[in-house]
Structures are given as structure tokens and as C-alpha cells.
């Protein structure tokens, strides 16, 4: 059995500012918050995901918390994946319920790196200036900072990144959000757990950020939208020709075509 394990934001779903005029009329609103429109998906991607979810495992893999993931109405109604990975790999959901086996395994792994409260305290001691607006915890697993990018120097960010990595934490700057995630809280490790549990023979993967790097690298075939942040550090990854929302369509078309070819080859060999 095959699977498609994919990041969501800026890979399959997009905010309004990432939608250009040529595709603006062919999208579906799939998330609102406090009366504001948050996320959209293209018509083609919506249909392709629905088809994939019927044929193979479609596994959303997101840095969003459980609550943030559940705000995406598409995955609670029209497309209901059996499995989803939230909190950057911190939780695996099966039919909406947390998989305890993975949670117990992760809890043991987290004892090998600097704890969340200590990391936050030491991080705050190292930051200078007023460029951080808020610090938020995500499911008591990691943190992200809402920052003013024009108020912080590249040198300070580089210093913080280097320090974080020495503590066993992975940094990632995505727009105005600066993430710090302990190494065991890892998207690919959660996917690998499911790959072994479900006996998956082949996993397509996709993602756009540094936090998706191992997901992309270790998947059997990994895709990166051409606008992806991860390409700045790893330009050799397989990237789409399309930019923005059309990149999602390109990724899903490639997977759909590959599945069709595999099915045809299997029929000819039987």
C-alpha cells in the first residue's frame, strides 16, 4: 500500500496573499477564524486529494496543533483522512484520536534534549531588543515566536539558530513566525512510525519549510513547491516548476500520474 504524507500550509493549502489573480476564482475556502477567511485550496487539488484518499493513504503532516488542524473544514467533512500528524510530528491522530503508542515513544525521546521550560528561559535571556511580539507554546511540545523581521539582525538570528541546534532544537523562520522545535518532534519520524505500523511500501512526501526537510529527503519521492523556504538551504531537492497555489496542483498531478503508471504496470505483470 502507498501513501501521500504532505505538509499543508504553503504546500497544499494557501492564505489569500499566496493566491494570484489567475487562480483566485478557482479556489475553495476551507478555514475561517473569528470571522476571517484563513485558508484556501484549489479546485483541482481538492478533487485530486479526494481521489487519492480513496485509493491510498493521504496523511496530512502539519506543524499546526490539533486544534488548529481541526479548523480546516475540508479534512473534517469532504475528505476525512484516517491518519493525520499534527504538532510537527508531536501527535499522530487515528480517526481524530491521539495514538498513544507514538505519544509514549516520543515522550521518552524528549528526555534526551533541553526541556521546554528551560529552553524558553534561556532563549529569552539571549534575545535582545523588542523584535519579538509574542511567544506561544504549541501543545506543550515546542514554541513559535511572532516577530518583526525588520527589527532583528541576521547576525542575532544566526547566533540564536546555532545555539538552539546545540541544545537539540531545530529552528525555522517562516514569514513572521520563528519556530523552535526539539529534534525528536519531527514530521518524518512520525511518518516512519506509521510506515512501519501500516506496512506501507512507498510514501510520496511534500513540504516547503526547513521543518519539512527530513520528510522530503527520506520519503520515497519528495516534492518541494518552488517557493519553499527549504530550498534556500537545500537547493538540490526536487522542486516544482509552478510557484504558489499551482505548485500544489503540479505535485498532485505528478502523484496521480505515477499511481496510474504503477497500476498499469502491475496489471501487465499479473
Summarize this structure as a short list of keywords or feature phrases.
single chain; 270 residues; alpha/beta; four-stranded parallel β-sheet; four-stranded antiparallel β-sheet; 13 strands; 24% strand
What can you tell me about this protein's structure?
With 270 residues, the protein is α/β, with parallel strands linked by helices. It is 37% helix and 24% strand.
Strand order of the largest sheet: 4-1-12-13
Largest sheet: number of strands, sense, barrel closure: 4 strands, parallel
Number of helices: 9
The computed structural class is alpha/beta
Measure the end-to-end span: 17 Å
Q: Give the mean pLDDT.
A: 94
Low-confidence stretches: none
Instruction: Give the overall form.
Output: globular
Number of strands: 13
Secondary structure: helix percent: 25-40%
SSE series: EEEHEHEEEHHEEHEEHEHEHH
Strand content: 15-25%
Radius of gyration: 19 Å
Give the gist of this structure.
The chain has 270 residues and is α/β, with parallel strands linked by helices. The chain has helices at 43-55, 66-70, 100-109, 116-126, 154-166, 187-198, 213-218, 230-233, 245-269; strands at residues 2-6, 27-33, 36-42, 57-60, 83-86, 91-94, 97-98, 132-138, 142-147, 169-174, 177-182, 202-206, 221-223. The model has no long low-confidence stretch (mean pLDDT 94).
Amino acid at each position: 500500500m502507498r501513501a501521500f504524507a504532505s505538509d499543508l500550509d504553503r504546500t497544499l493549502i494557501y492564505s489569500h496573499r499566496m493566491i494570484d489573480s489567475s487562480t483566485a476564482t478557482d479556489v475553495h475556502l476551507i478555514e475561517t477564524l473569528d470571522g476571517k477567511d484563513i485558508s484556501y485550496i484549489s479546485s483541482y487539488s481538492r478533487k485530486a486529494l479526494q481521489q487519492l484518499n480513496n485509493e491510498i493513504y493521504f496523511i496530512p503532516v502539519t506543524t499546526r496543533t490539533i486544534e488548529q488542524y481541526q479548523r480546516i473544514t475540508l479534512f473534517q467533512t469532504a475528505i476525512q483522512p484516517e491518519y493525520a500528524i499534527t504538532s510537527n510530528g508531536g501527535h499522530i491522530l487515528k480517526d481524530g484520536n491521539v495514538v498513544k503508542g507514538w505519544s509514549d515513544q516520543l515522550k521518552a525521546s524528549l528526555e534526551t534534549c533541553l526541556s521546554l521550560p528551560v529552553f524558553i528561559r534561556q532563549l529569552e535571556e539571549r534575545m535582545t531588543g523588542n523584535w519579538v511580539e509574542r511567544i506561544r507554546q504549541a501543545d506543550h511540545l515546542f514554541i513559535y515566536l511572532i516577530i518583526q523581521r525588520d527589527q532583528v539582525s541576521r547576525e542575532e538570528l544566526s547566533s540564536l539558530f546555532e545555539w538552539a541546534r546545540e541544545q537539540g532544537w531545530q529552528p525555522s523562520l517562516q514569514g513572521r513566525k520563528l519556530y523552535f522545535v526539539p529534534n525528536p518532534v519531527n514530521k518524518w519520524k512520525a511518518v516512519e512510525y506509521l510506515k512501519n505500523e501500516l506496512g506501507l511500501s512507498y510514501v510520496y512526501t511534500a513540504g516547503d519549510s526547513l521543518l519539512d526537510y527530513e520528510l522530503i529527503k527520506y520519503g520515497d519521492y519528495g516534492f518541494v513547491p518552488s517557493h519553499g523556504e527549504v530550498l534556500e538551504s537545500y537547493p538540490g531537492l526536487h522542486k516544482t516548476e509552478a510557484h504558489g497555489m499551482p505548485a500544489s496542483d503540479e505535485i498532485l498531478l505528478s502523484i496521480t500520474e505515477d499511481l496510474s503508471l504503477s497500476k498499469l504496470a502491475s496489471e501487465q505483470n499479473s
